[in-house]
Amino acid sequence: MLEKVLKGRPCFCGSGRSYRDCHEAVEKRIRDAGRRGAIVPGRKLLRTRAQLEGIRASAGINMRVLDAVAAEIQAGMPLSRIDEIVYETTCAAGAVPAPLHYEGYPYSVCVSVNDQVCHGFPRRETCLKTGDIVNVDCSTEYEGFFSDASRMFEIGTVDAEAHRLVENARDCIAAALSVILPWQPMGVMSAAVQDCAHRAGFSVVTMYGGHGCGVEFHEDPFIDYGWKRTEGMLMVPGMTFTIEPMINQGTSALRENGWEVYTRDGKLSAQWEVQVLVTETGAEVLCR
Ligand code: MF3
Ligand code: CO
After folding, report:
1. Distance between CA atoms of 102 and 138, rounded to whole angstroms?
2. Spatial separation of the C-alpha atoms in residues 268 and 117, rounded to whole Å
3. Any idea what the Cα angle at residue 202 is, between residues 200 and 208, rounded to 5°?
4. From CA 216, how far away is CA 16, in angstroms rounded?
5. Average pLDDT of the chain, as a whole number
6. Confidence at residue 1, expressed as pLDDT on a 0 to 100 scale
7. Tens digit of each residue's pLDDT (9 = 90 or more) over 13-57
8. Is the CB of 141 under 6 A from ligand 1?
9. Is 115 in the pocket of ligand 1 (CB under 6 A)?
10. 0.90 surpassed by pTM
11. By alpha-carbon position, which residue is closest to atom 2 of ligand 1?
């Protein structure tokens, strides 16, 4: 009887429909998959209408911040100028750079040059020079909602192999996006990334990966691009997470120095990052 009353109440997702007419079937499917041994998302990973509205607003700002960096980035620029652009553009929009003070991270943005894999510090002492490949990774908190995306930039004239790596890292994102389907495990994205990178002769980093993102900066699940296609959490409509494989020219092995992560062999690394929403039919890119 109580159950009947609960099912007649408005759905938790904010659709305005009753739970019975909205998420009851989805949550039954999640429970059944869980019983069969699949890793499944809890309700808190399914975005409500209000949360999605906040995440979209945050993502809109984050993309404008990346556009502001894109408009200015060039040879000779100290990396600290990228930090300034991100801080100023984000704050002017009434938002906060999510990396700043996150677990003690000391800057507003991660800038990873050449053999840096991720979490590079935008230091005043380091200037961009022609031939560099650079990842600028921006994350925004706006009204408590989070967005996360990164782009590669080629500075001046870049050698052909470096350019091929940057393009391949971008192709890996497209490959992952093309296989997102609700009720498939996240490993289908990992398999698509591995196929794309390995065919081009590159390797895929597995120590770092994607993550749920929206209500928190980094939330469940962690997404490992070393997974097989049957591994990882089932994707369910309403989940929001990042796709951000790191692709290396040589070995996938890493060397870490505090926050900063480098390739162990000193060869190049590239990464693009997008944030997506799982829909009924695939994925919608929220932030890029
Ligand atoms: N933006 C990075 C990501 O893609 C996370 C950076 S954490 C920080 O997940 F503290 F270094 F900013
Ligand atoms: Co991320």
Report:
1. 13
2. 8
3. 135
4. 25
5. 97
6. 60
7. 999 999 999 999 999 999 999 999 999 999 999 999 999 999 999
8. no
9. no
10. yes
11. 137
